[in-house]
Amino acid sequence: MTTSHPAPFGRALCAMVTPFTAEGALDLDGAQRLAERLVDGGCDGLVLSGTTGESPTTTDTEKAELVRAVREAVGDRVHVVAGVGTADTRHTVELALAAEKAGADGLLAVTPYYSRPPQDAVEAHFRELADASGLPLVLYDIPGRTGTRIEPRTMIRLAEHPRIVAVKDCAYDLLGTQRVLAETELAYYTGCDEYVLALYAIGGAGYISTVANATPRHFRAVIDAFDAGDTDGAARLQRLTIPLTELMMGSGLPGTVTVKALLGRLGLPAGPVRAPLRPAGREATDGLVAAYEELVSAVSAR
């Protein structure tokens, strides 16, 4: 059993955190070590400088340095997708060209935020970005953060552009998603960990997961089971992730904060978050570790 839509960046992608040193500087060595762990854990691709990667608080230079360092660490084994979205079309184009020069395989661009452009302006923004670079583009639809949706009809029109190839879907509109899947060849990646199996089962390409920073093998196992025809097994594996996903993504703390807290406790590269984010407290971190250990134990017992 396989999905019906293409997966231009593979099926199992991680929205990687951006490791920092204890002093808050970019930790390129840590980024390389984390990237290698994720690839060894089954990731087909790494998405850098997205929401989880703290893109609002990293500089343009840091973003390019991160792409170069991760590319050096993983070589051509996996796809490297660079987040370039900003509220400013010109700035977004500049970041796209810098990411292309640094060695990225693709671009991830969020809908321009705060100014809340109407749909014709949203469409023009993404077309200008796709025209500016030779890299394939993933549209990042997350209206809960940007305040602006990429409406399904806008998505369908944008799919006509040869370099607009995929969507990171955080719109929580399964009906709209199915409409676009039915009318285009866009590769849909869920950006919501609780929807990994649901979207994949209706023809999605895979996922761009935050939780996979800590558990890359587990989410890969979900889609591998589905591809093997073991739909019951895939559903069981998806359900096993509920406690950790709920604590990591639905506890009132940003995913970046919870992921870095868990990675830090596990001795993996992460470091602090940058202000205005604040670190998770001891109680929250203890809960994350307990849920992680429970998941690992449950998988081992299968």
TrEMBL record:
Name the keywords, alphabetized: Amino-acid biosynthesis, Cytoplasm, Diaminopimelate biosynthesis, Lyase, Lysine biosynthesis, Schiff base
Q: What is its EC number?
A: 4.3.3.7
Gene Ontology process terms (BP): diaminopimelate biosynthetic process; lysine biosynthetic process via diaminopimelate
Give the metabolic or biological pathway: Amino-acid biosynthesis; L-lysine biosynthesis via DAP pathway; (S)-tetrahydrodipicolinate from L-aspartate: step 3/4
Task: Please write the reaction equations for the catalytic activity of this protein.
Answer: L-aspartate 4-semialdehyde + pyruvate = (2S,4S)-4-hydroxy-2,3,4,5-tetrahydrodipicolinate + H2O + H(+)
Q: Which SUPFAM superfamilies match?
A: Aldolase
Pfam families in UniProt:
DHDPS
What cellular-component terms does GO give this entry?
cytosol
Residues that bind pyruvate, according to the entry?
A: 52, 208
Q: Does the keyword Lyase apply?
A: yes
Where does the record place it? Cytoplasm
Task: Give site residues, Part of a proton relay during catalysis.
Answer: 51, 114
Q: Which GO-annotated molecular functions does the record name?
A: 4-hydroxy-tetrahydrodipicolinate synthase activity
**Classification via InterPro entries:** Aldolase_TIM, DapA, DapA-like, Schiff_base-form_aldolases_AS, Schiff_base-form_aldolases_CS
**What are the positions of the active site?**
140 (proton donor/acceptor), 168 (schiff-base intermediate with substrate)
Q: What does this protein do?
A: Catalyzes the condensation of (S)-aspartate-beta-semialdehyde [(S)-ASA] and pyruvate to 4-hydroxy-tetrahydrodipicolinate (HTPA).
Family designation: Belongs to the DapA family.
The subunit field of the Swiss-Prot or TrEMBL record says: Homotetramer; dimer of dimers.
Protein name (Swiss-Prot/TrEMBL): 4-hydroxy-tetrahydrodipicolinate synthase
